[in-house]
Write a structure and sequence with these properties.
alpha/beta; seven-stranded mixed beta sheet; globular; FAD/NAD(P)-binding domain; 3 domains; five-stranded mixed beta sheet; Glutaredoxin; 22 strands; 427 residues
């Protein structure tokens, strides 16, 4: 272990943490991908700050009651202490290096913090292929590339897994007889990629990207150069911005009817949106649900005439127009309560539903990485049949690309095609 890091148990907490002028504590667990992702950052930051701040690790699984007494219920969790008192925020889950640095700096004088960081050496790493994005497309490509003995690094601003990791169950991915938790499917893909030799940098912040020069700088401390770059950053659903929405994603709030409609057999659900996607998905959901209420903030739907006619003719579908969702709350195991506001009168009402499906559009995740790429009218990257973009040596795959259908299987297929095309070029 790092010379500045000490592992302790609950009995040593007073002497090693509370009696120290400054300390940071990492509560970790085994078989915990976010803990593994944090470990390298914790060690590297201990080398920088360890002469002034005590770095401590506590194995949460063997100190569960003690951790709970400090309001630590998940791993990893970082707590910061100054003169025996908690300071700053509790950091947990996929923790960014910059968030840790910000808190460590705040515990020191600006002069001391600057002096410590002045010794940080900028690292340079070379790879055959750099994959931006650790969702199904990026992971599939990584598996193929590493099996072809190409040094492959996957960089992601979040933990590996992509959007599918937030889906509570996946039942249409080939090879699994029983429905599989989306997180577990992502985890298994990630572990398979690691087993084949893929290296990961996640979660990190992308400082700069030079697609022409095939370099990416992460966290301001490492620049990775590659012979080829594959952009597999995916797309994200547009959120409503309603209170409670983010916290309930995967727990009653969904952005995928194909994935989740089947779990609402005989139940009442709400669909938010008024375009083709919302109406078409509502028709699909109506095959399972006893009632579907389409909520749209305008006085008329934006969907095409044919889709509207089908929805209006479906006895299970009702409409709430001139209405927006301002809050979503969960009551009990599955009951959702939506707070609604009439966009014309301002009147407030509520709606009960077993689940809420949001279809107000997706956006490609190209912030900071898409400069110079040819995109379609919606901002998705255009590629040829081998997933090549308009920039030589730069490929794109998965939901970030211009295509008709976006599913886990199509993302994996794109990643496979891109990986094989890159392998053929580099052979």
């Amino acid at each position: 272990m790092n010379r500045y890091i000490k592992e302790i148990g609950a009995s040593e907490f007073q002497s090693e943490v509370l009696d120290a002028p400054l300390a940071v504590v990492d509560f970790y667990s085994t078989e915990c991908p976010p803990c593994e992702a944090l470990a390298d950052k914790f060690e590297s930051l201990a080398e920088i700050y360890g002469s002034r701040i005590r770095f401590v690790k506590i194995f949460r699984q063997e100190n569960r009651d003690f951790a709970a007494s400090l309001d630590v219920t998940g791993s990893p969790t970082l707590l910061f202490f100054k003169d025996g008192q908690r300071v700053g925020p509790k950091l947990t889950g996929g923790i960014l290096r910059s968030a840790i640095v910000k808190q460590l700096d705040s515990m020191l004088t600006p002069e001391v913090a600057a002096e410590l960081k002045s010794s940080v050496a900028h690292r340079r790493t070379e790879a055959d292929v750099l994959v931006l994005g650790g969702g199904p497309s990026g992971l599939a490509s990584g598996i193929y590339l590493s099996q072809a003995h190409l040094k492959t690094i996957v960089v992601d601003t979040a933990l590996p897994g992509g959007f599918v990791a937030s889906t509570h169950q996946v039942s249409n991915y080939p090879g699994f007889i029983q429905p599989l938790n989306g997180y577990m499917l992502s985890h298994q893909m990630t572990e398979q990629a690691k087993l084949n030799g893929v290296s990961f940098r996640a979660p990190v912040e992308i400082t700069s990207v030079d697609l022409d020069g095939k370099t990416v700088t992460i966290d301001g401390v490492e620049t990775i150069s590659a012979k080829r770059i594959l952009i597999a950053t995916g797309s994200s659903p547009k959120p409503l911005g309603a209170a409670g929405e983010r916290e309930l994603v995967g727990q009653g709030v969904s952005f995928c009817a194909t994935c989740d409609a089947k779990y609402y057999e005989g139940k009442e659900v709400a669909v938010v949106g008024g375009g083709n996607s919302a109406v078409e998905e509502a028709l699909f959901i109506a095959k399972f649900a006893s009632k579907v209420t389409i909520i749209h903030r305008s006085s008329s739907l934006r969907a095409n005439k044919a889709a509207r006619a089908k929805a209006e003719a479906n006895g299970k579908i009702e409409f709430l127009l001139d209405t927006k969702v301002t809050a979503i709350d969960k009551r009990g195991n599955m009951d959702m309560v939506l707070t609604l506001e009439n966009t014309t009168t301002g009147a407030v009402s509520s709606l009960n539903a077993a689940g809420v499906f949001v279809f107000i559009g997706f956006v490609p995740n190209l912030g900071g990485v898409g400069a110079g790429l040819k995109v379609d009218q919606w901002g998705y990257v255009e590629t040829d049949s081998k997933m090549r973009t308009n920039i030589p040596g730069v490929y794109a795959a998965g939901d970030v690309t211009a295509k008709h259908f976006r599913q886990i299987t199509t993302a994996v297929a794109d990643g496979t095609v891109a990986a094989m095309a890159i392998t053929a070029e580099l052979d």
